User: Fold these one by one.
Assistant:
Number 1:
Amino acid sequence: MKIVDHIQNAKGKTLFSFELLPPSKGQGIETIFQAIDPLMEFNPPFIDVTYHREDYIYKERANGLLEKVAYRRRPGTVAICAAIMNKYKVDAVPHLICGGFTKEETENALIDLNFLGIDNVLVLRGDARKGDSHFIPTPGGHAYASDLLGQVKSMNEGAYLYEEVAAHKTDFCIGVAGYPEKHFEAPNFNTDFKYLKMKVEMGAEFIVTQMFFNNKKYFEFVEKCRDHGITVPIIPGLKPLTTKRQLITLPRIFHLDIPEELSSEVELCKNNDQVRELGVEWLVQQCKELMDFGVPVLHFYTMSNPEPTRKIASQLF
């Protein structure tokens, strides 16, 4: 079922969902199940699975020259989504990213997803490769999420890369990312909203936000979206603080603001156990306020660690 249909069928009730990471290579499928099992009691209608681009290493060849070799740290998202749907009978939402994939590889992934009956995708540009100072498009791939979205939309219309006549139409429900505190590469909020609206006009049917710790940022973001004529569901992305170090790493990596009230309380914690307890309490209050606001879904970034999210959900659902 499509995400928008899950939301419509809920008739105003806030749903629960979460995102997980594919395990590191060498780990088996049970790793995925261990990250999902504790959260299934809250009846998630869908589970997001992230996609990760390749990394590179340089190996010395026999002639002394260096050869650039691509390798992946995690198994493919398509296979994980298939396993989730088969075991749990819930919808899996794979991320699609620009970085690390050619248009042909993207089309092949979409063909596989369509074959498996997976009809939701979250379209993202993706991050810069490790070691790069900025995002560099893959040769033969897409530079922007809007271009990737366009390829998915074309397949929904029966247009494939090398087909001269209309082929079988896919029917993907397409989601995109939203940034309550502005995408870090956008020069200003208005430019950010211009491109977000363009993606919705191109066919995006729902928005999932970057994590935030101040609900006011989300409320203002929703209001600004509506003012710009963006009417699709806007799903808040959420994550509890679990370590003191995250006061530094989360703002640096995700370009977000942690409220002074929260950071001050974290600084008073004697250890990370206390930080986790505080993080859960803070996010429970966030979620209650968001539910009162009428958000369609509470979407948790679990980082494949289900316990903090389980503690939060047990107080809400």
Note: The first strand starts at residue 15 and ends at 20.
Number 2:
Amino acid sequence: MEDILYKHGFGFKKKFGQNFLSDTNLLRAIVADANVTDTSTVLEIGTGAGALTRALAQKAKRVVSYEIDKDLKPVLEESLAGLENVEVVFRDFEKENLQKLEEELGEYSVVANLPYYITTPLIMRFAEEAKKCLSLTVMVQEEVALRLAANANTADYGAITAALAQRGETQVLRKVPRNMFTPRPNVDSAVVKVDFTKGGFEVKSAKAYKAAVRCAFLSRRKTLENNLVNAFRLTRETAKEVLRATGIEEGARGETLPPKTLGALSDILFDRGIVKE
């Protein structure tokens, strides 16, 4: 791909977080990680030079790829030539109406080498808003990957970990060293898969779960009881009652609690009207 970029005089733009992959074996591995088949519809965010797009198109039924940088048009016209199952959309995905897009796509999987600056908000958007997304298989910074798939009561465990756990199963599949990218970034990366068809658990209110998670990590050094008092303006006794009803030990801190326990907490908060829809 580098020769095509050079041929068209393309200059990398730091503001778009452009770090492209070209290693054929790695690209094929990512496609395999995502379980892409000839019946799959794939949504890619960040077409780049089209290397991953081409690898996806060789396996998928359809690939819809978003690219914000219109300077890549001539590059992609050459690198994706002959691929009739690929549609490149030159728009900012962050401004797209996800509900309307899903109506057009049907069931789909996201596969992407994500620009680092949109990683967290983008993943959270799919976790909170997507209805027809089967899975996310994305390249992210290694430290972000560890947070996404962390276990409770570890330094990496946080609000985004708990948010994803409620929707599905998250795994770090492979580490990718920085020298695999052009230009070379300052950090290593990893491929993470969030499978919305596995794991996960039901809660009575998505809003209440989000509030419970936010409360749990409001202040990591304080007890959950203190966080409940501060987050919901509860009396000390009401906070203790909520903990007892949920089966959480007095003195527990939020980051020690697994996502399902936070789910039970959210149900209590909802049942008691502390969080309302």
Note: The two ends are 50 Å apart (CA to CA).
